[in-house]
TrEMBL record:
The keyword Nucleus does not apply. Keywords: ATP-binding, Cell membrane, Hydrolase, Membrane, Nucleotide-binding, Protease, Thiol protease, Transmembrane, Transmembrane helix, Transport. Residues 26-312 form the ABC transmembrane type-1 domain. The chain crosses the membrane at residues 21-41, 61-82, 135-159, 165-183, 251-274. This is ABC transporter ATP-binding protein. InterPro entries: AAA+_ATPase, ABC1_TM_dom, ABC1_TM_sf, ABC_transporter-like_ATP-bd, ABC_transporter-like_CS, P-loop_NTPase, Type_1_exporter. It is a multi-pass membrane protein. It comes from Caloranaerobacter azorensis H53214. It is found in: Cell membrane. GO terms for cellular component: plasma membrane. GO terms for molecular function: ABC-type oligopeptide transporter activity; ATP binding; ATP hydrolysis activity; cysteine-type peptidase activity. Pfam families: ABC_tran.
């Protein structure tokens, strides 16, 4: 990375902070310039006191100097307190909010394939993890950079006026110590990178122990032992990196300090003492020069260290920019602008093939669905059923073939608009730590009509009675994460809640991916009957393993290994006497055997 990039990247971040909290930048710059006062008070104050004493000046002169030093320190303290205790925490909060918001919005529009690309995903998590801290460190590094520069320049002025030769000694000492600063900064950074994968693993394990969904299994299975072991292993690995790094850094530090002491204490002190000895320097000058020269090199060290910091920030910002600059191919595609005004009446998957990365999982699939039709998709686990749905709602684009909606290529249609016409429940639906109503509407509940919609949907899925009895009704929170009054739902109830979402709006198409996997038989029957009812004039596509429900479908597609191998009505497929029939018979047989077994037992 070149110097120009480092500069540009840090400036990018400063501009970003400027946008969210201007006063933080302004006060930070002011604090840098206020540092001009410190060396004056620390260095010149004592010099004048000593000089006045040795020159036998009136005591009031000394009192004046003391009052001056005191006033400077008090003013500084007021400003620093306000800056660090009042401004900085609020700046942290605002900037954190701004940058994380930006990243979350980005996440919501990334193509799904980004999550499957380990490199990109890594970049994204790194961007998110450090975003707020980095934004602030860029400001604090800039502040320290300016602060130490102003400080050092002031000391420079003091030294030049009192003894130019000493400046030469100080500069050499400064160059040497900053060289060591750079070397150890680089070393530190190199090892920091080695630690990242281990720290990632540690964080993962910690997460398992605090997130509620793991809590049951952790208690029942011996997995916690395994995780503790992995945790300890990672701690050991980190330790071995720290050991190697520690040896190098300790040595560098001792060496750096020794050289600095030789220059500042050895050379400088001897030089100054020799000058006093020869009467060329007052006691006060000695005092001022000695303090100034020591502070000068330590300030310059801070100054040079900030370059290492800017470099580290820059590496992070490059990563952040890559994430922010990512142009999503589907969500932001400029080809997909057409708004479909009319209702969706036809979906046609035409000879479509698709692969996630290398491996093709769908091969030459052709499927049709028209208004009023109920389409069932069946097939073994991993056959490609869910993938097909993901293509229809354009979470991915097909590799070969076409998907047409009302005879228009799906790639030409506005993605947002298309999705808003399709009611969908995923196989791995999610519930959120929000109220029941919000979990169904997936929007803010604003009007009484919104509430009516929610109650209607709850009725359809058979949750009405249960919610009615809750003190907070539809405003009860799901999970107890934010309130003790929240509720936990059983697996089946949760699935019903997710299903309620499709009753909220008059969708043109309803797609359900294994919607009854957690439902009891009665609830399942009820669900399919309701579904048939509300989808009379719509397109309904459901993926199911319960072959009893396929009996009501207008058309069944049996997908096997990414290919449609049989299609037709239940009757036709039974007559075909192929794989569908074998699956159906096996399921029927299983239920019969179970029923007979239970008869024998009872
Ligand atoms: N995000 C993904 N990345 C890579 N492969 C995937 C991904 N999702 C699913 N697959 C693979 O695609 C195949 C079909 O998956 P899917 O469509 O979910 O099957 P199902 O018919 O059970 O719904 C499976 O072999 C699965 O391993
Ligand atoms: Mg699936």
């Amino acid at each position: 990375m070149r110097f120009r990039d480092v500069y540009k990247n840090n400036l990018f971040m400063l501009k970003f902070v400027w946008k969210y909290y201007k006063i933080y930048i302004i006060t930070s710059i002011l604090i840098s310039f206020s540092s001009i006062l410190t060396p004056l008070a620390d260095v010149l104050g004592p010099k004048y006191i000593i000089d006045f004493i040795s020159q036998k000046k009136p005591f009031t002169w000394i009192v004046t100097v003391v009052i001056l030093i005191f006033s400077i320190e008090i003013l500084k303290s007021i400003y620093y307190s306000w800056y660090y205790k009042f401004i900085t925490p609020r700046a942290h909060n605002k900037i954190k909010g701004g940058i994380n918001n930006l990243l979350m919005q980005k996440a919501a529009s990334l193509d799904l394939e980004c999550y499957e690309n380990a490199d990109f995903y890594d970049k994204y998590t790194r961007a998110l993890k450090e975003a707020d801290i980095r934004a602030l460190s860029v400001v604090s590094s800039t502040r320290d950079f300016l602060l130490s520069l102003v400080y050092a320049l002031t000391l420079f002025g003091v030294i030049v006026t009192l003894d130019p030769i000493l400046l030469l000694i100080s500069v050499v000492s400064m160059l040497l110590s900053s060289l060591f600063g750079l070397i150890s900064g680089k070393c530190q950074f190199k090892y920091e990178r080695l630690l990242t994968p281990f720290e990632k693993h540690l964080n993962y394990i910690k997460r398992v122990f605090y997130e509620v969904q793991y809590s049951k299994e952790i208690r029942i299975f011996p997995i916690s032992k395994l995780l503790f072991k992995k945790y300890d292993n990672n701690i050991d690995k980190i330790d071995s990196v720290l050991k190697t790094r520690g040896k190098k850094l300790t040595l560098l530090n001792i060496l750096g300090d020794t050289i600095e002491f030789i220059m500042t204490i050895g050379v400088t002190m001897l030089y100054l003492a020799w000058k006093i000895y020869n009467g060329a320097l007052t006691l006060g000058d000695f005092m001022a020069l000695y303090i100034a020269s020591r502070q000068f090199s330590s300030r310059l060290q801070v100054f040079f260290n900030s370059f290492t910091q800017f470099y580290e920030h820059s590496l992070y910002i490059t990563n952040l920019k890559e994430v922010l600059d990512y142009e999503s191919k589907i969500e932001n595609s400029s080809d997909s602008l057409e708004i479909l005004e009319e209702k969706i009446t036809d979906i046609s998957v035409d000879n479509v093939s698709f692969s996630y990365s290398e491996r093709e999982v769908l091969h030459n699939i052709t499927i049709k669905a028209s208004k009023g039709e109920k389409i069932a998709i069946v097939g073994h686990n991993g056959a490609g059923k869910t993938t097909l749905i993901k293509l229809i709602i354009r979470l991915y684009d097909v590799n070969k073939g076409k998907i047409l909606i009302n005879n228009k290529d799906i790639k030409k249609l506005s993605v947002k608009h298309l999705r808003s016409k399709i009611g969908l429940v995923f196989q791995d639906y999610q519930l959120y730590s929000a109220s029941i109503a919000e979990n169904i509407l997936l929007l803010e509940v604003k009007t009484p009509e919104d509430e009516d919609k929610v109650w209607f949907a709850l009725k359809q899925v058979g949750l009405y009675e249960k919610v009615k009895e809750l003190p907070n009704g539809i405003h009860t929170l799901i999970t107890k994460e934010f309130s003790n009054e929240g509720i936990f739902l059983s697996g089946g109830e949760a699935q019903k809640l997710a299903l309620a979402r499709i009753y909220i709006k008059d969708y043109d198409v309803v797609i359900l991916d294994e919607p009854s996997s957690s439902l009891d038989p009665l609830a399942e029957k009820q669900m399919y009957e309701n579904m048939m009812d509300i989808t009379k004039n719509k397109i309904a596509i459901f993926i199911t393993h319960r072959l009893s429900t396929t009996v009501m479908a207008d058309r069944i597609y049996l997908i096997d290994n990414g290919r449609v191998i049989e299609q037709g009505t239940h009757k036709e497929l039974m007559e075909l006497n192929g794989k569908y029939r074998r699956m159906f018979d096996a399921q029927a047989q299983f239920y019969r055997e179970q029923a007979e077994d239970s008869l024998v037992v009872s």
